[in-house]
Amino acid sequence: MAADCLVDTGAILALLNRQDRWHAKCKDTLGQLSLPLMTSTAVLTEAFYLFRRDRVDMEAAWTFLRSNALVLAPIYSAELSEIHALMSRYWDRPMDFADATLVHLAKREAIATIFTIDHSDFETYRIEGKRKFRIVPGRRP
Questions:
Q1: Helices 55-66 and 41-50, interaxial angle, to 10°?
Q2: What does the alpha-carbon distance between residue 28 and residue 39 come to, in Å, rounded to a whole number?
Q3: Three-class DSSP category at 113
Q4: pLDDT tens digit string along 87-101?
Q5: N or C terminus: which one in the chain shows less Cβ crowding within 10 Å?
C-alpha cells in the first residue's frame, strides 16, 4: 500500500494523548493527510516505549496501529550501512535511529512530506543530502 507522508514518533504521541500541547494541531493535520502514513518499526518501538507506563495511551496506540492509518515500511539488513552513514553524517545533532530510518525511507520511497513535531531536526535533515522535507504541521501548536 503506497503512502505519500511519513510519520514520526512525536506526532503519533501527540495524536494519541489529549493532554499533549500538540494534540489539536496534529489531529487537524491528520484530517488533511492522505492515509495511510508510512513509518518504521523503530518509530513504533520508540512510541511504545514512551507509552509503557500509561495503559490508556498504549491501548490507543494499538488501536491506531490496527486502524490501517499506518503502514510499516521494512528496513532491510542491506540498508543498515546507509542508515549508519546518515547517523554519522548528522553526528552533531545527534540523529537517533528512528529519525535515520525515516530519512532513509524518504529517499527510498520518494516521500518528502513528514508529519512530525520535531521541526528542528527535520529542518536540518536532507533527503539524499540536498532536498528539504515538507514538515506538517507548522511550528506552532
A1: 160
A2: 19
A3: strand
A4: 999 998 889 999 999
A5: N
Q: Please report how the helices 97-109 and 80-89 are oriented relative to each other, as an axis angle in degrees rounded to 10.
A: 120
Q: What would the pLDDT profile of 34-50 be if each residue is shown by its tens digit?
A: 999 999 999 999 999 99
What distance in Å separates the CA atoms of residue 77 and residue 52, rounded to the nearest whole number? Answer: 28
Within 8 A by CB and 6+ apart from 51, the residues are 13, 16, 57, 58, 61
**44 neighbors 54 (Cβ within 8 angstroms):** no
| Number of DSSP helices (H) and strands (E) in the chain, helices first | 7, 7
Cell numbers that stand for 127 in this block: 533527503
- Contact (CB, 8 A) for 129 and 43: no
Distance CA(101)–CA(31), nearest Å, equals 25
- Using alpha carbons, select from 66, 57, 47, 19 the residue that is nearest to residue 116: 47
d(CA 54, CA 60): 10
Q: CB of 114 within 8 A of CB of 133?
A: yes
